[in-house]
Structures are given as structure tokens and as C-alpha cells.
Specification:
six-stranded mixed sheet; six-stranded parallel sheet; single chain; about 15% strand
């Protein structure tokens, strides 16, 4: 066994810096009232001794835990299989790390997990929550509201009755879908099919609406329901080829769905884009560039969306802190523009 080395104390830092314990506490906790020369002496002593503040004691002073919960309303099998979530979590982590906050990841395997997540949030372990991939009629928002935790949502919420003061970050799903379908129509394709995402999520509904904006008179058989997964894309593509064998283009609700569609088209001897053009949604790099053929898709800045979610939450927390009353007005929701990225599949 290795011998445990005692942790440096606040008193030890004060003695090294030649200041009072109260002065060290103010510097360590970011409070005002300490001149820069004294603060620099304290910082140097902290570095020399390797002092690490006790988070519990610090929380009593600052009323902050420097920890943010990230709640993904999906099972871990989905989160770790879909690169979308990795990209969004990377953006969130980058922003939280830059502000010396810890990320606490909470996943939900099913509705039985919602109460557990709500209890954790209500227990005072974190300063706020970032919540995304919600499904319609999901009880999580109501449970989080009861917990009294500040929250920013990823994706446009859609709750009956509405809520005031909801802050969310999303992309222009409807506009991006509309651009994708118009691109296919501009290529001279007349039988454009759509594989949807999970229709209990607003992003999938918005992309379906964008498809319908451009294909107002489309045969209903040209729409097949998917679930944002590769397997769902394969299943829906088989349904489409059976019900509409003459289709000549497919707009898939995301890149994973598009990959599933490409596999089935290849199995059925359909050449892409000669026989059937395919467009996805997300521009999941390097994923979208490595498909065969490389995938034309709608780009949304997933990492930047995650980063902005975290930034808006931290800004809201700063706004409510008594020592930071100079911070601007309440954060508002943001919708990112999308861009069509043209590659070989369409």
C-alpha cells in the first residue's frame, strides 16, 4: 500500500502566502475585495502546495457545484451507437471544461428511469441541466421543472399547453429538409421518397413537414417511417421499394438512415445516383464522406449547437448569481441555419 500524503489546507496556503485564511478563501472562490498583488501571492502559494479546494466547502460559499447534468432521453445502446450524440456531447464538454465545470451524464433506459433522474437533479448535486433527444409526451421536462433546476433543451420542445421561459437550441430542420427535396427535384427526379425519423420527436416531424412543403402532392406511399437508425433506414427502404418500385430519389431523415437506404438499394441492384439519388441530414463527418458513394446531405453544426446549449445555461446561472448582476438579459432560444452539402449520391 502507498502512504497517503495529507492534502494541503487553506491554512497552509495562507501561511505560505503570508495572508489571512479569509483572504485565501476569497481568492480561491473568485470573490472580490483582494488586491492583485495579494491575489497573485495566493495563487502562487496554491500552485506551489498543490492545493485543491474542497468542493463541498466551496459550494457553501459560492452556492454553486460547478457541475452540469447532461440528460439524454435515450438508452445507452442508442447513445453510444449514433455519432450524433458523440458530436453533441463533445461540444457540450468543450464549453463546460472551458468554464471549469464537470459534466455529469445521465441516460434513460426507459420511463422507469425518469423518476431516478428527477431525484438526482432535485438532490442539489448540479447547478443545471442540459436535456436533449426528448420524445413527445416525455415526462422529463415536467419532472425537471418540479426539481427547480435551470435547464436548456436541445431541440425544439413540443408540449401541450406550452411553458414560459423555455430556452432551447435547434437547427432549421424544416428549412433544411425543404432544401434537400428541392435539390432532388432540381435534378429532374419526379418520385422523391422520404424515410422519416422517429415521429415522436419534433426534429423528425419538422423534416417531414419540410418534405411535404416541397412535395405537396406526393403519393403517401412515398413516405416510410424510420427511427433515425441504420436498421430503421434499411427496413423503410425495403418498404419503399416494394410499395413504390419506380421511385428515383430518397431524402433520409439523417445520415444513419441514409446509409441503411444505400445498403438496401445496392442489394436490389439500384445504382446511386444513376437510378436513385439519395440525400441525408446531419453531415456527420467523416462518416458522410466515406459512404459509397459519398453522401449528399444537409449540414447542421452539431458540436456548435451543444457548445451553445452549455453557454446559454452557464450564462443564465451567472445572471441569477448575486455577484454577477451586470450580466445581460435572459438567454433566448437559438435556431441554427442549415446548409446543403453536395457530394456524389445526389
Amino acid at each position: 500500500m502507498t502512504e497517503t500524503v495529507p492534502r494541503p489546507t487553506l491554512e497552509a496556503v495562507a501561511a505560505r502566502a503570508g495572508v489571512s485564511r479569509a483572504t485565501v478563501s476569497r481568492v480561491v472562490n473568485g470573490a472580490d475585495g483582494v488586491t492583485e498583488p495579494l491575489a497573485e501571492r495566493v495563487r502562487l502559494a496554491v500552485e506551489e502546495l498543490g492545493y485543491v479546494p474542497n468542493q463541498a466547502a466551496r459550494s457553501l460559499v459560492t452556492n454553486r457545484h460547478d457541475a452540469i447534468a447532461v440528460v439524454v432521453a435515450e438508452p445507452e445502446s442508442r447513445v453510444f451507437a449514433d455519432p450524433f450524440f458523440a458530436r453533441q456531447l463533445r461540444g457540450i464538454s468543450r464549453e463546460l471544461t472551458a468554464h471549469d465545470n464537470q459534466l455529469v451524464l445521465l441516460l434513460t433506459e426507459g420511463r422507469h428511469d425518469h423518476a431516478r433522474v428527477a431525484r438526482y437533479l432535485a438532490g442539489g448535486h448540479v447547478d443545471g441541466a442540459l436535456v436533449f433527444s426528448l420524445h413527445l409526451d416525455d415526462p422529463l421536462p415536467e419532472l425537471i421543472q418540479r426539481a427547480g433546476v435551470p435547464v436548456v433543451f436541445g431541440g425544439r420542445p413540443d408540449w401541450s399547453g406550452g411553458r414560459n421561459g423555455v430556452v432551447y437550441v435547434d437547427s432549421d430542420n424544416r428549412g433544411g429538409a425543404r432544401d434537400a427535396v428541392r435539390h432532388l427535384l432540381g435534378l429532374g427526379r419526379g418520385r422523391v421518397a422520404h424515410i422519416t425519423g422517429a415521429l415522436d420527436q419534433t426534429s423528425a416531424v419538422d423534416r417531414l413537414d419540410g418534405y411535404r412543403d416541397a412535395m405537396a402532392d406526393a403519393d403517401p406511399r412515398l413516405v416510410a417511417e424510420g427511427d433515425f437508425t441504420l436498421a430503421g433506414g434499411e427496413r423503410a427502404m425495403r418498404e419503399l421499394l416494394e410499395s413504390c418500385p419506380g421511385l428515383d430519389a430518397v431524402f433520409a431523415a439523417n445520415d444513419l438512415t441514409a446509409v441503411g437506404a444505400l445498403r438496401v438499394l445496392r442489394e436490389h441492384g439500384r445504382r446511386v445516383p444513376d437510378d436513385v439519388a439519395v440525400v441525408g441530414f446531419d453531415d456527420m463527418l467523416p462518416f458522410a464522406e466515406q459512404t459509397d458513394p459519398p453522401l449528399t446531405t444537409v449540414r447542421q453544426d452539431i458540436e456548435e449547437m451543444g457548445q451553445l446549449m452549455a453557454r446559454l445555461l452557464l450564462r443564465g446561472l451567472d445572471r441569477t448569481a448575486a455577484a454577477r448582476e451586470t450580466v445581460g438579459g435572459a438567454p433566448s432560444s437559438v435556431i441554427f441555419p442549415t446548409t446543403l452539402v453536395r457530394r456524389a449520391s445526389a
